[in-house]
């Protein structure tokens, strides 16, 4: 269970998060809201990438507010960036074996790495020995990063807009990956997304607006509430023609 108490964050005299109070114990929670509402900052605060100016964070009852990123990772938190990091000179198998905590001890790490690649729709034979460099597309890197999260099997996994910057085919595949991940995970997934198909998977949706929680409830209830707040706009840059939420001003 993740609990945030009175979390606020500001930078350059600008308040980004204002008195956030949350208790999350569902398996799949989506965060949505207008650009600049503080969604990415909220995930970074949870991971420890930035420190709140006030408030406390608890994971399974333990106060982790003052813990470092590595200490939080050891407690069972994973973070997937909007733009996955590329590790030149490192192969896919190396990353997945390290993520799974199996190192190169015998064949176990290799078998597990192949398994999680299959779970995200990548053929292990084609990808296991690829280098994590610019020869991999954005969509391939996104799926490898999700495979890394699956390999870790942490109690809390944070995804910052995994659909951003990928093509139509990759997005369609990504939806199926998250559907499978939802079915298999025993931990909690928190994902920032604007895509209706991802929001529909969620047990609950957090609607963040102006750095505050406007709604936090079951998916359908929040989507119904959003319909009163915002206009569904057919965005030309929206990958599947899904609903792009545009705030009414």
Describe the protein.
This protein has helices at residues 39-47, 69-75, 92-99, 108-119, 124-127, 138-152, 168-184, 196-199, 219-229; strands at residues 2-11, 14-24, 28-32, 54-59, 62-63, 77-80, 156-160, 188-192, 204-209, 212-218, 230-233, 244-247. It has 249 residues and is α/β, with parallel strands linked by helices. A six-stranded mixed beta sheet has the order 6-7-8-3-9-10, sandwiched between helices. It has a four-stranded antiparallel beta sheet with strand order 2-1-4-5, covered by helices on one side. β4 and β5 form a beta hairpin. α3 (92-99) packs across α4 (108-119), α4 crosses α6 (138-152) and α6 (138-152) runs parallel beside α7. It starts with a strand and ends with a strand. Mean pLDDT is 80; it is low at 232-249.
Number of strands: 12
Proportion of beta-strand residues = 25-35%
Provide the CATH topology. Rossmann fold
Low-confidence stretches: 232-249
The CATH architecture term is: 3-Layer(aba) Sandwich
Largest sheet: 6 strands, mixed
- DSSP helical segment count: 9
The rounded Rg comes to 18 Å
Protein traits:
9 helices; alpha/beta; six-stranded mixed β-sheet; 249 residues; four-stranded antiparallel β-sheet; 12 strands
Summarize the structure.
With 249 residues, the protein is of the alpha/beta class. It is 35% helix and 28% strand.
